[in-house]
Amino acid sequence: MLRVEGLNAWYGPSHVLQGIDLEIRRGEIVCLIGRNGAGKTTTLKSIMGLLPKTTGSIVFEGQEMRGRPAHIRYGAGLAYVPEERRIVPGLTVRENLSLGLVASPLKSRESELIERTKRIFPRLAERLEQTAVTMSGGEQQMLAIARAMISEPKLIMMDEPSEGIMPVLVDEMFELFKAMKAEGQTILLVEQNVELALGIADRAYVVDQGVIVHEATGAALLADAEIQERYCSV
Ligand SMILES: Nc1ncnc2c1ncn2[C@@H]1O[C@H](COP(=O)(O)OP(=O)(O)OP(=O)(O)O)[C@@H](O)[C@H]1O
């Protein structure tokens, strides 16, 4: 579904990604792990088209995306949930979900898509008319994910979704990712919560100083204390 080759990215003069290679197959959960500052967020932003300067190749569903604006990539089926959830606090859950369909060709299917969202995200189903700001951080994060999911992206990329969320909701969120996968959703996940992430990942890549230094199945990496110690300890 996605093949990234030789991806380089810069912030001004700072050369952050130095040749990232990775691949995601349909239906997989793939996890990117690595220390703070390794380049995980930059990788997601580069794939989504949010950085001004990148080189290399990002082929998604057979189409070269590099150099194309973010809205074209979105239209092709890429979605990105940033670490800072950008939900609209003063709107209800339902209104926030509707925002995910603004300018989407799927707008005419809104009620059907909201029903589907309610099935996948039961916690939101109970709160559709609640103002987003009155929900817990974890519920707001689920809303941000649901809003990205409502437009039926082929690949959803999530940056540290469990950050700052109470443990019971983190567990629920990881159950949610499994349910999304069971529905056929392909997921690229950046997570500091390495054990939980590797527990659900089909495969994982370790990023260090802007390059991929290791690739393995989630289970193999989970059992590899040495790699985890070397590249993931803070
Ligand atoms: N807007 C920016 N301007 C300049 N440098 C940046 C910017 N954003 C990130 N960087 C730098 O790019 C490098 C990679 O950052 P990135 O956010 O991709 O890392 P990360 O692996 O996602 O880490 P974290 O877990 O801390 O978010 C870091 O050295 C960081 O300081």
TrEMBL record:
Record GO terms (molecular function): ATP binding; ATP hydrolysis activity; branched-chain amino acid transmembrane transporter activity
Membrane-spanning segments: none
Family annotation (Pfam families): ABC_tran
Keywords in alphabetical order: Amino-acid transport, ATP-binding, Nucleotide-binding, Transport
GO biological process terms on file: L-amino acid transport
Entry superkingdom: Bacteria
Domain ABC transporter: 2-234
InterPro entries for the chain: AAA+_ATPase, ABC_transporter-like_ATP-bd, ABC_transporter-like_CS, BCAA_Transport_ATP-bd_LivF, P-loop_NTPase
SMART domains, per database record: AAA (SM00382)
PANTHER family: HIGH-AFFINITY BRANCHED-CHAIN AMINO ACID TRANSPORT ATP-BINDING PROTEIN LIVF
Family: Belongs to the ABC transporter superfamily.
Name of the protein described by the UniProt record: ABC transporter ATP-binding protein
UniProt source species: Enterovirga aerilata
